[in-house]
Each structure stands twice: as C-alpha cells, then as structure tokens.
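Model it.
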Amino acid sequence: MKKLLTAITAVVCSVAACFAQGWPENYQGVMLQGFYWDSYSETRWSNLTSQADELSQYFSLIWVPNSANCGGGQSMGYMPIYWFTKHTSSFGTETQLRKMISTFKEKGTGIIEDVVVNHRAGVSNWTDFPSETWNGRTYKLGPEHICSTDEVANAPGQAKPTGAPDTGEDFSGARDLDHTNATVQDNVKNYCKFLLDDLGYAGFRLDMVKGYAGRYTKIYNEYSKPTFCVGEYWDGQYDAVAAWIESTGRQSAAFDFPAKYAINEAFSSGDLTKLVWKANGSTDQPAGLIHFGYPRYAVTFIENHDTDRDGSKFHGNVVAANAFILCSPGTPCVFLRHWLEHKAEIKALISVRNAVGIHNMSSVEVLRSARDCYMARVRGTKGELVVKIGSSMVSPEGYSNSDIKASGTDYCVWSKTGVSPGPDPTPGTDFTVYFDNSDTGWDTPYIHYWGESESTWPGVAMTFVSENTWSYTVPAGTTGILFNAGDGDPTKTADFTPVADHIYTTSGDAGVYIKHENPDTDFNVYFDNSGNGWSTPYIHYWGASESTWPGVAMTRHEGEIWTHTVPAGTTGLLFNAGDGDPTKTADFIAMANALYTIDGAKGIYGSSGITYPECETEAKAEYFTLQGHRIASRPTEAGIYIMRRGTSVSKIIIR
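Modeled.
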C-alpha cells in the first residue's frame, strides 16, 4: 500500500471493518486445531489455558469445540441445544471457557468457535428448542422453523416441521433449520454476535456448511462482522469449494480440502508432482485453493478431527506435509495430534515462516516438480524462503548450508531475511486490466498503479468498454493497482496484484475478461422455480427499459422451468414471488437464453437441456464447469467459469 493512501484508508474503514470480509488479506498467522475426536481430558478449557504461554508463541488462532450445552453425557458439541445460555459443556464450565478466551486474548491469540447453526437439538424431544434471553431479547425457535424435508416429518409422536425445504444437504442427527425463515436468520445473526461480543471469540469455524446455502453465511457475517470465518465445505473439488466461497460474497474463508486430498495423494503414491497444479494453464503453483484465485480464503490443513478417523486420514511423512502448508500461502491449520507428536519440528517450521513474514497471499515460484522433489521459493514481507520436500538431494541456487533453518527426513527449509523479496513477476510489456463498475456506479472509474512506475493519485481515468466494464493498459513492471472514483471521494477498492487481461471487482480478481454481447432483439430468459415453490415467479428487468416492480408474471415452460421474453437492451434482472413478499433473488446480468436459479445463471437452456456453445476465447481445456456443473464444450454465455485441464485450473469471467 502506498504511503500517501494511508490516511485515506483510515477514513474509509476501521481495521475491524476492513478485516470483516471473510479473512484478513496478507494475514501472517498460523492456526491450531486445539482438539481431536474424544479429546475431553486433553483439551479441557482449563488444560488449554495452562498452555497459553507456549501456544501463543506459535499460534495466532486456536480452533476449539462448540461450547454450547448438548445435554447429558459426553459430547463433542455438534448437537447443540442451547445458543445464548448454558455454556457448560464436556470441556468445562462457562467460567473456565471465559477464562481461556480472555487469557489467550491477552497474549494476542484469538479463540475460534466451532459454530453449529445448520441444525439444532431439542431439550427433551426432537423439536422443543429452549427459550433463551440475551441482551434484553428472548429468542425461540419451533417446528415452524425446521425444514419441511427434515426426517422428523416422518417420526411418530413428534411435531411436524412446517418450514421451507432444506437449501442444502440433510443432517439426520438433529433438526435442520430453515435458513430461509426470517426468525431463524434473526436467531443465528444474534447468536453469532453473542459469541463475539459476549463470550469474546475471535471468529467462527462453521460446521457443515453444505447443509445450507452459502448466501446465508453472507447474511450472518455481514451482521455480526467476525474478523475470521472459515467454513467446512467438505469437498475435494476446487470448483465446488471456490463456488461456495463466492456464494458467501467472499464473507468466509474455507478449509482447503482440495489441497488436503492432493497432499494425501502425493504422499501415499510417492509422487510429489501431485503437490503442483498449474495456474492459468501454465504456471506451476502449490495444489489446492492456494494455487490460484483464493489464497486469502484458503485455510490449509493436513488432518482434522473427522479425517483423522475416516478414509481421508493422511498416511505419510507428517512433518514434511506440514512443511508444505507452513511454507505456502493460505492460513495453515496444524492438527493437535501432529503438534503433540512433532512439537519441536513444527515449532521450527512456524518460526521460519514468521521470520520471513510469509502470509496468506504470499507469492510462490515453484523451482522443481518431480516425483521425488517439490521445491519452491516463497516471498514474505521480511525476506524469502525455499522449501524442499522429498528424497532428492538437491539445493537451491544462491543458498548455502548456513541458510538452513529447519530440516528433517525428506524436507529442508532455507531462508534469507533482512533482504527485499522483490516484486512478483509481471509481464515484460504493457498489459491491460479491466474493472467491473456494477457495485460502485462511479461516473468514470480511475485506476491507480505502482511498481516500476507509479501514477499520480488518484490515478488515470479508465476507458469504457461495454455496460459496466472499463479498461486501462498499465505499464510493464506494474505490481499493484487499485480503483477509485477519481473525484476526491476517499472511497476506493483494496490493493490488488495485477494480472494481464483479468477483470477486477470490489472483491478482487474475478478472472480473465471475455466480452459477451446480447442480441439486438428481444430475447428469452428462463427460471428454475423448483427451489422456491413460488406459485408464479415474476421477473423484474431493467436496461433500455424497466418493468414496474415487482415485474411481470413468467410463463410456465415445462415442469418448474418458467420463461419470459425481455426487451432488447435489457442488462439486468431479478426474480421474485410477485405477491408483496420481499423475498427475491440477487440482481443478475441479463443473458440471452440463460437458465437462472436463485444462485444465478446455470447456462443456456434449450430443448436438450442446458448446453454450452463453442467459446470465442483461445483458451483450450478438456472441460469447463460453472458453479460445480460440468460443461461438455466451451462456453460463450456470461458467468464465472472454471477451466480445467487435468490438475490445471483457471477461472474465466464472461460478461
């Protein structure tokens, strides 16, 4: 960040507000999962408190089990009964809990709560949730707040649920809450706020986020404003986890299961090339979410309490695997068993990470990728390190044995501190970047850039391309950019690392820009109503002309697919129930013949279902995916697409 903008940053937002989006950028902390399954005595609150001096030297965050009371008997906390009251659990009393949180906080370490809001258990039966009072308000949920698809609907002698259908996967152990319901949302929002403001937690680990749509995490986090939030979206597919992060509006990080499974495969097969994926189809980068697009939102790990006891358990060199995540971007999360069994080695790895200043968005240059060797140079804020994993007896150029700071069986880490790590590699020629002005609505966006040369604040006016898209060609050697209104208003975006031909939004890099044009005539759009149950969906559109709110009743096409022909020049649309109910979708870009759901465009709808015509881009790939749906051929319709060739993954945005 340039010094002349420091004062402006202070005006725009407080530190807490700036950090509220999912996970702090350039975050240098390491996290500890402070428990494992059935670790009742090992990880009692009082026991963790007694280790605060040691743990706080190495970990900035410690994730602990849910502290809510789950009834009689021992419980890991995943069947919570109480939210606002009764925080005496199998791990200790509420007094001991508060003491642990405050003790670590005084030493600069935040405690992360394992938050369970997908489901809830009753006091004495399946549905009798307790009435609880906090901060002068009483909170109460009942059968009307349980998903109608929950298994309690078929349980004899139990109250029948009358909520909406589940927006995610079912959990049979407790009642799935209807997150579409305003009362449920109000309860969850304030429960999250209670955890932060009353108990003093630093943030959330969200349990089983596959159980409810990601848009609700956005609602809860925007209200409670956690500095740290990470979701357990248990899926090894990059596309699926990335889509969940996007569905939260990047209001939450996610555990990097794609990296976890790549690490498992690399060590179990003895092929360390599995630790490397290709960004943009060409550049070697560490595997997982951290390889491209999402390092800020990736919490990497080798093992957790669940994978430690199922078929996903890691088998291999534990310390070498931890060296991989501790010497990579993302926020590493060390598993308690690994810490206890390999404490001295992990301490050394964390120490070198901290000494170099590696953070969750650090740049990586893979120097060698072979079956017996992974070697990479990682840049930090105070220097750089080179990590080598594998049996190959090789050393990096420019380093000597005196630079070795951590080593052991099949791993070695060299580092240099007190030297400038240098800028990230950038194109050797001028290159173009794009900005999506949809969220900001500035008359003319300005771009401020720096690197080998720097623009004069507030920068340079960008050039209009089409609709809400603007472009500018920055000089070779540009290493940083931001966007602003150019009119003296201090509002601006965060700092971004520029990538040639990529389009940026207020949230950051949105991938490669590919222009999309709608026809000059009226065109059809489609809506899948199966997840809403609206009697007749309405469409509200705008652009060259605008419908009168709530819009126009759509026509049933077939089954739950509805259609409407919008006027030429339509640029945006949304869908709603048309009956005065404020429930509606988000605003979407209008795309000819696209099929929409409440989550956005799914592709082009035709007689043969959803299809994806040939793409005009030169990008080559074996297949594309859009929001987790596999696409047989290359797309032209607007949307964010994931392009994959083997383990090579890139993101493309088409507007």
